[in-house]
Amino acid sequence: MKWRIVAFAASLIPFLIIAISFDVKPEDVFAVGIINFLAAFLAMMTKLFLQGIKFHYIIRVFHGKIESFWRTLFVRIGSEFVTMTTPMFVGGEVVRIYWMNKRGVSTSKASWLGIFEIVTEVLAAGILSLIAGAIALLTGHIIIGIIVLCTTIPVIGLWAGLFFLTAKKDFQVPKIFVNLVLRLRKEKGQYYLDKTNVWMTDICTMTRQNIHAPHAKKAFLISFLISLASWLVFGISFMFISFGTEYTVSAIDSILAVMAGNAIGNMPVTVGGSGLAEFGTWAYLSHLDEFKLELPKASMEWNAIIAWRIATYQLPIPITWFLLMKMALRKYQNVE
Questions:
Q1: What is the pTM of this model?
Q2: CA 49, CA 117: separation in Å to the nearest integer?
Q3: CB 55 within 8 A of CB 29
Q4: Distance CA 314, CA 317 (A)
Q5: 316 beta partners
Q6: What is the sign of the dihedral through the CA atoms of 217, 218, 221 and 224?
Q7: Cα–Cα distance for residue pair 293/299, rounded to 1 Å
Q8: Which domain holds residue 83?
Q9: CA 330 from chain center: how many Å?
Q10: C-alpha–C-alpha distance, residues 295 and 274, integer Å
């Protein structure tokens, strides 16, 4: 799987560009202090831990126990490797669906559980990002506020819209894709189209069966609250890094800036949002009002931004890779 090496190398490119552009040296990055650096890293790992708890909880509520708590937790954390090394933070759900399917959960049900988890994650992150964008607009920082809102609203609308619409109608493969597939592969194409339509119908049926059930509403609320807690913990990670600089930020400012950076990093441009998330966080803290990368007075220095990203992005990548290989993608015997 050489793609993991390529993806990791690609994620380093924005760091090098930023470091060269702003003359950031290794000693500048280390100047934030090892304790502050480790605190930010711990905040990120706590976020992943909470996501693992939520994943285990959702499976238990809607299907029952399929593995031990710790193995399920490690699979959820390991799947983040794919999320961190693909554009727009997607891909990890495919690993989780594959893992559930190998443990005896039907593909349609595993897919529905994956969608259920993603929607709660997107809503929690989206609400915080919307607050960050709205506060930027209200305080007169129009450009960064508009960028955050324009990258947040479509993501929330897409996932939430698709999830709740599946309770009202059955979705099928759009005609434009049907014609394209049949033009390329006739009989084989029709076979896969039929399988896909059955899969989509099953997901819609499951939504209708579960969405109004009391246990589903409770599970949605609890999952949302866990997601919200995980993003808040991740949000304060930059506050710890700032303690090692002259420009200390509060927990609220840290959360708003990190969520603004996360929203901008969702644009499918770079691997894992690398470069975009750093720019978004810096721009929010520096109150960007025009498109130029010169450091304004009293702005957050780039060495702190880079140190934060290494602690919360680069350092967790090898950990999630190890768990992905050891837990999620190890060979399973098919369950009868």
A1: 0.84
A2: 14
A3: no
A4: 5
A5: none
A6: negative
A7: 11
A8: 3-105+224-328
A9: 23
A10: 20
